[in-house]
Amino acid sequence: MLLEEMFTYLLVGAVTVGLWYIFIRPMNHFEGIGVKQLRPWPVLGDLYATMFMTSSIGDFIKRAYDSFGKSRYGSIYLFNRPTLILKDPELIKQLTIKDFDHFSDHRAFISPESDPLWSNNLFSLNGQKWKEMRATLSGSFTSNKMKHMFEVINEAAQNFSTHFMKKKKIS
């Protein structure tokens, strides 16, 4: 009888520690390194209001953004995944332009089998495929080419609006 009770207590303790390790421990990832964070719920993270439909995803993002005050960054939890929110434009510029090679892997929103077009988007690629695609595209976004693209897009927009203004006068 004593051995069975001891085994039961060990099993309950192991399950409790396992559940803590899987669901609770990740919710302190950023707090442990000094990054401001909201108060996440176990399993749901900070999405609890959105999951219970008491708040829209837009309201959630605004509330999270505003809650970090003048800080350059903060963190939220999408379920049990820690997610960093960058607020400072200079920091965003540094990470996306100067230090881009350290941040090549992105979270998959949709599986490649479900949407092959989206899975080949630069924001969906990972690893070597991302590096190759970024090298291919970076030549297209030089300052000179962007100025030329602006002129072409501006001309197309003017033609578009002129066309619809003529249609409005006809009808």
TrEMBL record:
Record carries keyword Magnesium: no
Protein topology in the membrane: Peripheral membrane protein
A GO molecular-function annotation: monooxygenase activity
Transmembrane segments: 6-24
GO cellular component: endoplasmic reticulum membrane
Keywords for the protein's UniProt record, in alphabetical order: Endoplasmic reticulum, Heme, Iron, Membrane, Metal-binding, Microsome, Monooxygenase, Oxidoreductase, Transmembrane, Transmembrane helix
Cellular location(s): Endoplasmic reticulum membrane; Microsome membrane
Domain of life: Eukaryota
Entry similarity comment: Belongs to the cytochrome P450 family.
Protein name, per record: Cytochrome P450
